[in-house]
Fold Peptidase M28-like protein.
Amino acid sequence: MKKLLYSACALAFIACGSSKDASKENDANVDQAKKYAETITAKDLGKHLFTYASDEFEGRNTGEPGQKKAVEYLKNFYISQGIASPLGGNDYFQEVPSEYLSNNRRGMKLKDSENVVAFIKGSEKPDEIVVISAHLDHEGIKDGKIYNGADDDGSGTVAILEIAEAFKKATDAGKGPKRSILFLHVTGEEKGLLGSKYYTENPIFPLANTVTDLNIDMVGRIDDRHKENPNYVYLIGADKLSTELHNLSEAVNKKYMNIDLDYKYNDENDPNRFYYRSDHYNFAKHNIPIIFYFNGTHADYHQPTDTPDKINYDLLENRSRLVFYTAWEIANRDARLVVDKPVAEKK
């Protein structure tokens, strides 16, 4: 009996110790996540966006000179941060041929364009890929007016830059993600989600190895519905393929940010059909769980008045950090996300 009691006590002691160790490990992970998330700042986001959505970039129309300046800006940022290209060397462009673009856009002849790709290799599960995406293009110049696209989607583009920098700082300190992160800036979204379509048809990494796509498209403004409660973001698609992704997203927000997560546009019967209208959908079609982060439309949507001075940079900071935290949790959890729902076909 004494031996049994001794064994029971020993096991209880070990279990208690293991529980304390696990708790310490979790606390350390939270502290690390916060440390690097705090490098994502309103000031740095604004610095990027006042350049990226300036007249110099001529509205970033697919294949046009302003869009070429935009992709060079993104490439030079990644080089300056020492964030590698998955294509090797200084080649950060996945070329998207004019023939492909034009064939998918009937009646419109489009010029060669490119997706911009950068990559941080995972420390333990490098073959599993977390994609963070945003579209780099906008409407260009119409009737002599420049459509700067500061919110659409300059906001998502610069959010990725800051998120990438945060992950790189973590990696340099030996705290990098266990899974690999692909930072994917896609072209031709305004022409029909063409850059993301091209990527999913010509993936750099097998789609079977792609764990999720966190897509950021318009996260710098406030819509009419939230004028009294500006600390919000619309989430679309988180529960469409993976219950686990939805639950993780909710838990991450509660743990770190406490942003009001609005699911209005996640309703299958919503007439706006936003789930089908941004680049994440090309991943979802391939059974890859996604989250679409979105602030809703506003009076400057697809207008020349969508300029960087109208962005709420504190909100952009909060939403960018939320995406970072979510990516951090997905990239560092033990098991990859479980897909437990069928693909939602476009109706």
